[in-house]
Amino acid sequence: MLKFGMFSWRDGMKRWLIAACLAVSGLLLTGCATTTVQSEVTAFHEWPAQLQDKSYVFERTRDQDNNLEYRNYENLVRAELNRLGFTEASTAHPPKLKIMLSYSIRVRDVREVYPVVVNPYPAPIMNPYWYGPAWRGYYSPFYDPFWYGPPIVEQREENYQLYTRQLRIVMAQVADGKKLYETTVVSEGRNGSLAAVMPYMVKSAFADFPGKNGVPHRVELKMQ
């Protein structure tokens, strides 16, 4: 009866540990760095049902006109527009649309407290030469990591910086300046390199063009 009780208590502790580990793992996954970029995308538009002329030109501010970083992001937007059937206007053909884009990045300090399962009584190291046919199937509480009590859940603290990246793209008519499409992409993560994340933010901006008017949606893209 005592042996049965030992095994029953031991199995219960194992089930408890498995459940605790799964719960802690779920919490830790929210704070770990991932290989994806998640973006919150919101678009407002009054897009014409049929727009025959999709020629466009980028309208830049004075600072953007001589900014190499901006030019790189502009090329990303250009590639997406061309994929959607837009054409960049030439000097001989006046554009129908003008494209304006802006971006920013902010950082804040984050303090995160999360539980960690710790075994305060690690099992003793056994000599492999002790093992033998007669030892197999032998049970001793002195070699049971759960014999001395359940594992302890400790609170750990982690401090890191969280970056908020934002991209805004506006498409308007050249003739009267009327806005036809305006989208904002917001992404958060520990990666402080805007250049590394921007390609995925631009793709997210046009993932469902023109999309539902004023309805935020989340886009998740795997980083290459």
Automatic annotation (TrEMBL):
InterPro entries xref list: DUF4136
Location of the DUF4136 domain: 41-211
Top-level taxonomic group: Bacteria
Residues annotated as signal peptide: 1-33
UniProt keyword terms in alphabetical order: Lipoprotein, Signal
Name of the protein: Lipoprotein
